[in-house]
Amino acid sequence: MEKIVIEGGRKLRGEVNISGSKNSALPILAAAILSSDESIIENVPQLRDIITMLKILKELGARAHQEGHTVIIKPGNNLSPVAPYKLVSTMRASVCLLGPLVGRLKKAEVSMPGGCIIGARPIDLHLKGLEALGVHIVIEHGYVKAKVKKLHGAEIYLGGPFGSSVLATANVMMAAVLAEGVTRIESAASEPELVDLANFLNSMGAKVRGAGSHLIEIEGVQKLHGTRYKVIPDRIEAGTFMVASVLTRGNVRLRNMIPEHNNALMDKLREAGAELETNGSACRVMYRNGLKPVDVTTLPYPGFPTDLQAQMMSLMTVTPGISVITEKIYPDRFMHISELNRMGSRIHLEGSSAIVAGVKKLSGAPVMASDLRASAALVLAGLVAEGRADIHRVYHLDRGYEHIEDKLEALGAKIWREKE
Ligand code: UD1
Hints:
31% of the residues lie in helices and 25% in strands. It is an alpha/beta fold and 420 residues long. The protein folds into two domains: 2-18 and 233-419, Enolpyruvate transferase domain (UDP-n-acetylglucosamine1-carboxyvinyl-transferase, Chain), CATH 3.65.10.10; 22-230, Enolpyruvate transferase domain (UDP-n-acetylglucosamine1-carboxyvinyl-transferase, Chain, Alpha-beta prism), CATH 3.65.10.10. The strands form six sheets. A four-stranded mixed beta sheet has the order 22-23-1-24, with helices on one face. A four-stranded mixed beta sheet has the order 2-15-17-16. Strands 4-5-3-14 form a four-stranded mixed beta sheet, covered by helices on one side. Residues 23, 26, 93, 121-126, 160-162, 165-168, 189, 193, 306-307, 329-330 line the site of uridine-diphosphate-N-acetylglucosamine.
């Protein structure tokens, strides 16, 4: 096992290149099996979750490999419908294979994803959506077993208790592209990653309209073909570097991002007193004299993303005054609080709101990463803490941040990786 070590106190300065979006690339790689032809997918980040997805695709019988940031995938004509537990259990997002397998093979056996550290993560909306398309589903021996003779279009309402669901919308979209007739998904998730998925599917010959809004319309087609496609930049990685720049009182220019995908965060950073300048696909994020506390509530897109909640909390720990951070997507996603408090922050939890009282300084300490974004929050805290912070279990970080320590080091941080 490895850990990341940071000696805090350095301002970040310079330029950083934003990698391709993990959350776009995962469903897009899964969607590539909707055709037997070869597809070439560019701007795919080199991450542990991507390696896992490629392993699963190979296990299903596809040929798939990554060269640099390009994935070449040839699903062929002998795909198996079974996505096994040993791989699916390591990555919850593998549930997004259900839709493509059902679309292509009319059959899927995908290991049921478990809960995870950020809370219960049901898949009822995925199943409801697929059932509406005519799929018969049973849960047996820990597997979701889905079967259908012929997929048909349907009107589907996909709203859940916490709003829309990103991957449930993706699954229904991916199955519906090969259904007979028209499917309308109401209360669809509108995240940019779904627009990317729809664009990818359309480049394969699908007919998807309305992605990015809450009503998506899909006209089924008989067959899809291979394609060449470039994945969008990762708005969560970009957001993490934006917060890092303000937190370290730095001045960082992010390249190769889509600034409008981060409007909710940019609005909050400006409210906190930071200065942001966007220019095409670049954004400069600058600390200005002093910061003010801001209240943040996570919501489905275009609201403030839950995947940036922990990082924003790190910023608020050293911002004078009180801020309230409310989690409306995953009410239990607060594992980072106790670790941040070990570094000297003053945060307490009231239901699904964290009350953060800004302190003058954090102090470096050994801390444990619990999930992907919580790990990023601890790295950010380490960047401003006095002394040395050792962040254990960095494999969480490697699931979703490409070469994070190299990128931060290039911006002036003192950060390195060590064997445990
Ligand atoms: C995706 C992202 C994840 C992000 C999340 C919310 C990927 C690979 N992952 O996950 O990084 O944190 O969106 O923006 O894209 N829910 C149900 N029933 C369901 C499905 C979801 O009640 O069948 C609930 C969830 O428990 C949660 C909310 O809906 O409270 C939103 O989750 P969802 O959008 O489905 O998250 P994912 O798509 O799994």
